[in-house]
UniProtKB/TrEMBL annotation:
Subunit structure: UreD, UreF and UreG form a complex that acts as a GTP-hydrolysis-dependent molecular chaperone, activating the urease apoprotein by helping to assemble the nickel containing metallocenter of UreC. The UreE protein probably delivers the nickel.
InterPro entries: UreF, UreF_sf
Function: Required for maturation of urease via the functional incorporation of the urease nickel metallocenter.
Localization annotation: Cytoplasm
Keyword vocabulary terms for this entry: Chaperone, Cytoplasm, Nickel insertion
Domain of life assignment: Bacteria
Record's GO cellular component terms: cytoplasm
Name of the protein described by the UniProt record: Urease accessory protein UreF
GO molecular function: nickel cation binding
Organism in which the protein naturally occurs: Nakamurella endophytica
Amino acid sequence: MTGPTVATGAPAAAVVQLLLADSRLPVGAHTQSAGLEGALAAGMPVHDVPRYIDARLRTVTLVEASAAVLALTALAPADGTPAAGWPVDPDPARRLAAVDAAWHARSVSPALRENSRLLGRGLLRLAARLWPDASAVRAVRALGRPSRAVVLGAVGSAAGLAPADLATVLGYDDAQTVAAAALKLVPMDPVEATSWVLHAAPAIAGMAARAAAVRTPEDLPAAAAPLVEAWAEAHAEASARLFRS
């Protein structure tokens, strides 16, 4: 069964940006806590959640957003020609594979890597339905099991998103995922959780600006978060859990 495809251009790009930041998008985001469930299980107090959001924005989220921007610039413009700074390679899938490999090398936790590829699969299914003829989507499908970051970059290319806008989507999504998960994990006022996201706005903007400046796989930040990664591994082995991550 096929459905309508998505137009490109500034108005469409603005809507796509909102869609990608919406947890109701059918890509499996409802299964995620951005590591919060594991963090709380390990003893992190709820009042430290804002600091946790900030730490993620400076580390794992920065790496993912930078990889998404790299994938976008590897394919921009929409015809699949790489942006300035990329080596000449006629195969866009190989350029995306280089981004995916760079992201993989900087993502220490096997649990986080596998979760990203599962989310990438759901997002790729959506992209294949909405942009079936986009060269960016065809290129990322050739990778097999790409990370979510690389698929997001391909979607950004197909939709005409700017690098900073795509990185902002990832920053907002990460903060909002933590806040939404907190409401299911601990008794608290929903307004307080919402305030966490708003207060993270400057950190999101700073992260997005840094990610948008990345130009080649060699420039991809290697910002590790040992506690986040350790909690992710422990959470993956937990016998009872509400979220996948």
